[in-house]
Amino acid sequence: MLKISQIFGPTVQGEGSAAGRHCVFIRTFDCNLECTWCDTAYTWAVTDEKAAKTLSGHRYERNDPAYGEKLMEPDEVINRLRKCWDVENEPTIIVVSGGDPLIQQRELVPVLERLHAWGNKIHVETAGTIPLVPEFDACVTQYNLSPKLANSGNRLSKRYKQKVLSALNATGKAWFKFVITKDIETDLAEVDQIVADIGVPRRRVMVMPEGSDARTNIETAQQMVDAALERGYGLSFRTHVLLWNDDPDR
Ligand code: SF4
Predict the structure, then answer these.
(1) What is the best residue among 6, 28, 38 to mutate for testing ligand 1's pocket, by most ligand atoms within 8 Å of CB?
(2) Is residue 9 part of a domain?
(3) Which of 142, 157, 172, 247 is most buried when burial is the number of CB atoms within 10 A of its CB?
(4) Domain holding 54: CATH number?
(5) Is the CB of 154 under 6 A from ligand 1?
(6) CA distance 5 to 52
(7) Residue of 6, 29, 30, 33 to mutate, ligand 1, most atoms within 8 A of C-beta
(8) Phi, psi torsion values for 108, nearest 5 degrees
């Protein structure tokens, strides 16, 4: 059984190197990190203790019918995707996000194998703290890898797993994406260190402004873009925020 929060689309990929492209989303339930600014905290902040880790302090309901945990067999996931888009005959990008979908790699394999066989491209969003399972990796077209910085509020030993990141980088399928807050120089210095430690090609690195409203996104992007470009990094907006103000169904 898979633990699913949402299946929705068609929409646009909001972030990273495929931003703006047509896709359908599978959002898995559960995360092993607790980022203070997480924009999908409904996938994990379902206890008072976890809710206290977020900036809002809001505790979500695990059994919320829209965004909470739904247990699904692989066939049900496929059927729900089909209601969004004809994934069998009109292949598109399937964004597998969370939470962190790497928690459920083995459970996802039967779903991803079918989607892959129909010609869909599988793009996986992950913070890169959980080792890859080969059968899962075989289905994946691209990793949108977002290692978390100190600004996330997670302790270093939990958020930074150098061996896992190196293995993901070695697949040749990873694009790195870092969330930058208003403390731009501190955050970029940490990005530089990770990029050097892992040996990430700089052309595969994008930085992205934190913020769940369009004004904050644009202002932070304007402040950091030159420093990012000088380093050889690209810039990602959060397209869905600019278009829909972080509506969780888009
Ligand atoms: S890793 Fe992603 S889903 Fe998990 S808490 Fe951080 S931002 Fe949220």
Answers:
(1) 38
(2) yes
(3) 142
(4) 3.20.20.70
(5) no
(6) 21
(7) 33
(8) -80, -20
Checking if the pLDDT of 246 tops 80, the result is: no
pLDDT in tens, 201-214: 999 999 999 877 88
Answer whether residue 61 is part of any domain.
yes
Question: Residue 99: CB within 6 Å of ligand 1?
Answer: yes
- How does pLDDT run across 154-193, given as a tens digit for each residue? 999 999 999 999 999 999 999 999 999 989 999 999 999 9
Atom of ligand 1 nearest to the CA of 32: 4
Hey, what amino acid is at 233?
Y
Give the range of the structural domain holding residue 161, as residue numbers without chain letter. 2-177
How many distinct structural domains can be found in the chain? Answer: 1
Would 80 be classed as within a structural domain?
yes
> Is any atom of ligand 1 closer than 6 Å to the C-beta of 127?
yes
159 Cα: distance to centroid of ligand 1 (angstroms)? 10
Which amino acid is present at 97? S
Percentage of residues in the chain having pLDDT higher than 70? 100
For helices 184-198 and 214-231, the axis angle rounded to 10 degrees is 50
Confidence band (pLDDT; 50, 70, 90) for 29?
A: very high
Nearest CA owner, ligand 1 atom 2? 99
Rounded to the nearest 10°, the torsion over CA 16, 127, 160, 236 is 10
Tell me, yes or no, whether 128 lies in a domain.
yes
